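If your schedule permits, I should be very grateful for your opinion on a structural question. I have a record of one protein: its chain in single-letter code and its fold written as C-alpha cells. Kindly check, if you would, that the fold set down in the C-alpha cells agrees with what the sequence suggests. I remain grateful for any guidance, and I place the record below:

***
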Amino acid sequence: MDELARLEETISNCRACPRLVAWREEVARTKKAEFRGWTYWGRPVPGFGDPAARLAVVGLAPAAHGGNRTGRVFTGDRSADFLYASMYRCGLANQPDSVSRDDGLRLDGVWVAAAVRCAPPANKPTPDERDRCLPYLAEELRLLRGVGVLVCLGSFAWDAALRVLRELGHVTPPKPRFGHAAEAQVGPYTLVGSYHPSQQNTFTGVLTPPMLDAVFTRAMELGRFPVRRDGV
C-alpha cells in the first residue's frame, strides 16, 4: 500500500470529532427519500484524483447527501455537477459527471480534497473541527510533491489552505484576502480563489460556468499545464 492509500485509509476511519461522527452516521441511517436504495458511505471522505497532480482543489466539506452518501469528494450533488463540468471543459477530467465512486471518472493533473472530511450539520464545521482535520490536507500536500497551485472554493477553504501552509512553514504576512479570482503566493504555492459552486451561488449567477472555467484556466497556466484539447 502506497503512502496516499495509507492516508486515505486513515482518513476514512477517523472519529476525532464527536459531533461530526454523530451527524454523518445519522444522515447515513435516515437517508434522503430519493436515495433510499443507497448504502450511504457515512464516513470521512478522503481526497481523490491524480497522484501526479500539479493542481489541488480545496473545498469546504462533503455534502450530507453528496460525498457523505457516495464516499467520494464532490460526488453526487449539484455542486459536483457544476465543478466537474468545468474541469471537463478545461481538460482536467475525462467526463463532466461525478455521480458515484465507480462511475469511471478520472482526473488529469488535479487532486480534489476538502478542508473538513466529514459532512457537518448545516454545512458549518466549527473552528475546532476544522483544525483537527487540517493535518490531513497538510499530509496530502506533503505527498503530492508536484502540486504548486491550490484552487480554494470559498473563503472557508481559502482560510484553511493558509492555515495548512503556515503549518508547513510557509508564512506570508499580511494575510491575503479571499476573492473570486484572487491570487496569493505563499512559499512555493500559488492560491487562486473561487466562489464555491454551491446552489446558492450557481442558481443566483454569483458563480457562472465561464467564471469557474476562467479560474481553472488561470490555475493551469500557473501550474504550467501542457496545452490540451477541450474535454480530453
About this structure: The first strand starts at residue 48 and ends at 49. Residues 127-143 form the longest helix (17 residues). The two ends are 29 Å apart (CA to CA).
